[in-house]
Amino acid sequence: MNQSQQTIEPWLRGIIRCPQCKGEVIDATHAGDDAAAAAGASSAGTSVTELRCDTCHLAYPVENGVPVLLVDLARRTDS
Ligand SMILES: [Zn+2]
């Protein structure tokens, strides 16, 4: 079995927009260092799925297939 729990429902993925600029976001992955370690449940070496907005330079986390579209929780990608 190789089904990812991070998969976003296609209908949901199709309507997701960046909450800040209302632009489209792209699928991306980020090495799960701090976030995954803090959760404590994941094994090391996992990567986290995120939705990235290159306009705002923000990456929104996806938790258990649910995108967290909050600017306050987004990771900055331009630093
Ligand atoms: Zn944006």
UniProtKB/TrEMBL annotation:
InterPro entries recorded for this chain? Answer: Trm112-like
Pfam families tied to this protein: Trm112p (PF03966)
State the name under which the record lists this protein. Answer: Trm112 family protein
